[in-house]
Task: inverse folding
């Protein structure tokens, strides 16, 4: 459920008081970037990696950061407090655009005035993390810089909508014969005991959960390759799973009309889910300890 | 120069009173469409074709029109009156988004609440229509449905910005070896007396000025093919010109460091510019007459 407040250009105010200009380049061009950061029991998860990626996205679009990253992290905590979500599972949405200017495609001349909005909301763990997800295959129609986490999301929106119209959860995207990622998640497959995922280049968004899961794969000693794989490899995989901030590690049990394996989450997927949960709990604990320590300084 | 007023969801109000929600899907996903419609001496140009394309864009994204197209045209005239632009050259910008909802990629369930903003501004004819434009070549990084006039414009923005950083006016885009269009215009070339332009498929935006110019090419009896052409064909063309609502028919005189032909607008380009101006004047006259006749009913 959406919170009542938002951080808007320096202050926390009621979200309904936020007034975006129709000339905001986020509104007219999608000229901005965003992040979605999970918190569990009020504790932010993998903030450092999210903020590092945010800074990279800003750099790639030549948008100056309107806030320093330490300040930003403090503000996230403040929002969680303000919304009384210190015991809740939820997420922070934050978005930075180039600002409002008379419309012209090239960057505006003169001083930069980026706009930043951020808000918190509760978000329960989706059922499909346990039950498994049904996905459709869909052509990847997106632009060729999806490594930047921008607001140009229509390719994702239309694919996701197609999946939902079929009563499914996600769309796995492919450029010609190569699987890139899903409409809101990265895709991993298991073939003969080896885990595969698309390399982090301009064709995918390098998910934070993707990075966490790759760390876990390495620490569990599971054979792993970061290489493109085909639709055929996907459809004949022993296991398929998705990773994202909200989906964590979600098994795929059905692709279009094809039931994968036995139609239940596979053993390596389960192993990674358990490792992910342990990591998340350990992380939350240490965050809590850190926050608690800071209080005593 | 930007006007003081905007049409916003049914009323004409001061533009600074328009308050876009941060949850508007136009802001979070670029989930919306737009049009830019030119007026000369207060007379709208090719409104019918613009509104037909707008309706098509809405259909492709499954956004219901928040206003019927006749009403929309009347509102454009009202805005021009409100801004005292009845004798001015300018343009109308209009944008329709899917509306504001809690963020989720798939379309919102329940009643549709699209948001529509529209405003008028003065816009003088750019000098480069006479003098010719310098352009860079740039990879076409955009998504694969640019036939829909959506707000997902970062691929255009970044290419245009590259051109402007070099002191140039436009970027001509190519997918691999094929020229598609420019960052804010369509591209035509002349080779041995034949005019070429990319066919209107999902790889280009089917410009209204493109359609007008194709009509003019036919009526002038100039040989014409609507076929893809390569970067090599572009660079060795006898003439190159751009078409768009704001650029009308603009000759290209330089591509990167290559001076085209004699570095001055070519004869077929000039012929089409003259034909375009005649068409535009005839059109404006008849619009004026029609408006005047309507007043007397």
Result:
């Amino acid at each position: 459920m959406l919170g009542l407040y938002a951080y808007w250009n320096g202050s926390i105010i009621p979200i309904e008081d936020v007034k975006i200009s129709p000339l905001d380049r986020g509104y007219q061009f999608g000229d901005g970037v965003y992040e979605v950061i999970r918190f569990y029991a009020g504790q932010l998860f993998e903030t450092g990696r999210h903020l590092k990626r945010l800074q990279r996205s800003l750099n790639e679009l030549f948008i100056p950061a309107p806030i320093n990253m330490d300040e930003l992290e403090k503000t996230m905590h403040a929002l969680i407090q303000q919304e009384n979500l210190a015991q809740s599972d939820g997420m922070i949405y934050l978005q930075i655009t180039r600002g409002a200017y008379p419309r012209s495609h090239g960057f505006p001349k003169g001083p930069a005035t980026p706009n930043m909005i951020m808000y918190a909301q509760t978000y329960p763990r989706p059922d499909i993390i346990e039950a498994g997800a049904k996905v459709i295959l869909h052509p990847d129609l997106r632009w060729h810089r999806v490594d930047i986490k921008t607001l140009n999301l229509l390719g994702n929106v239309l694919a996701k909508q197609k999946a939902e119209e079929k009563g499914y959860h996600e769309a796995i995207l492919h450029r010609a014969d190569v699987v890139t990622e899903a409409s809101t998640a990265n895709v991993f497959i298991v073939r003969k005991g080896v885990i595969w995922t698309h390399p982090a280049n301009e064709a995918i968004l390098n998910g934070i959960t993707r990075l966490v899961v790759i760390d876990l794969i390495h620490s569990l000693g599971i054979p792993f390759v970061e290489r493109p794989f085909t639709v055929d490899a996907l459809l004949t995989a022993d296991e398929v799973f998705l990773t994202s901030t909200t989906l964590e590690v979600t098994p795929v049990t059905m692709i279009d009309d094809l039931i994968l394996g036995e139609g239940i989450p596979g053993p390596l997927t389960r192993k990674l889910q358990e490792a992910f949960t342990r990591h998340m709990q350990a992380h939350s604990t240490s965050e809590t300890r850190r926050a608690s320590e800071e209080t005593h300084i």
The radius of gyration of chain A is 20 Å. Chain A has two domains: 5-122, 128-281.
